[in-house]
Amino acid sequence: MAPAIETVGLCKRYGDLQALDGADLKAEKGTVLGLLGPNGAGKTTAVRILTTLLKPDGGSARVDGLDVVKDAALLRERIGLAGQYAAVDESLTGRENLELFGRLYGMKKSEARKRSDDLLERFDLSDAGQRLVSTYSGGMRRRLDLAASLMARPSLLVLDEPTTGLDPGSRQQLWTALMGLKAAGTTMLLTTQYLEEADKFADLLHLLDHGKVIATGTPAQLKASAGADATLDEAFLALTGHATVSR
């Protein structure tokens, strides 16, 4: 079975800036891969390549067995993307937003309605499904955006800093939703500014710096590399020289 994600020698340059410099990434299906790194490490570039939004200059990248360049059109049908800004329409209700996404994915009206209802229930939004999204809190919008990214049952869910800007209560609600997805075996790619989040969800971490993968391991393995009882924050500092994750 092909890995969910596999890149070999991935390179991308912007003028004089080498954003990715031979990055090798790999994640098995049914796992959560976390990408960590300081500002300018190459995380966003890697995500954009893996989601077919950007073409690499060198190396190769495959998602769900498909080449991100040659099979880009087909691959887009298999990827769900949720970022730090909810991509939903405030002038529609929650249910209307989900049904619209379903129709755009080619679902029949009845199928889109049923899938919408199922996802509203999964993300604790059933009672708010008939309300305009303009009345939603930030956390509710983010959960609706996550639901929308799952409408077509993607092979890979990409979470690009999904809880950035949320208050602690809303972040906890989204974490609960993500825990449910992980328990169900959803394959996820996670970038995050919160090392606690990476420690909680990721099965495997790739630590990027200056476009290179400088460390790979489980959260426990990376923490152990910094000494007994070290936190992931301390391991991150030891490996990169930076105190926190930043964009």
Key terms:
10 strands; globular; Rossmann fold; 2 domains; 4-stranded antiparallel beta sheet; 247 residues; 36% helix; single chain; alpha/beta; 6-stranded mixed beta sheet
Structure explained in plain terms:
The protein contains nine helices and ten strands. With 247 residues, it is α/β, with parallel strands linked by helices.
What gyration radius follows from the Cα positions, in whole Å? 18 Å
Instruction: Sketch the topology as an H/E string, one letter per element.
Output: EEEHEEHEHHHEHEHEEHH
Share of helix among residues? 25-40%
**For this structure, what is the CATH homologous superfamily of the largest domain?**
P-loop containing nucleotide triphosphate hydrolases
CATH architecture of the largest domain: 3-Layer(aba) Sandwich
Question: Quick one: overall form?
Answer: globular
Main sheet: strand order: 6-7-8-3-9-10
In total, the number of strands is: 10
CATH topology of the largest domain: Rossmann fold
Topology (elements, then pairings):
Blueprint: E1 5-14, E2 17-27, E3 32-36, H1 43-50, E4 58-63, E5 66-67, H2 72-76, E6 79-82, H3 94-104, H4 109-122, H5 138-149, E7 156-160, H6 168-183, E8 188-191, H7 195-201, E9 204-209, E10 212-217, H8 219-225, H9 232-240
Parallel strand pairs: 3-8, 3-9, 6-7, 7-8
Antiparallel strand pairs: 1-2, 1-4, 4-5, 9-10
Helix pairs in contact: 3-4, 3-5, 5-6, 8-9
What's the quick description here?
This protein has 247 residues and is of the alpha/beta class. It has helices spanning 43-50, 72-76, 94-104, 109-122, 138-149, 168-183, 195-201, 219-225, 232-240, and strands spanning 5-14, 17-27, 32-36, 58-63, 66-67, 79-82, 156-160, 188-191, 204-209, 212-217. The protein folds into 2 domains: 1-78 and 155-247, Rossmann fold, CATH 3.40.50; 88-153, no CATH class.
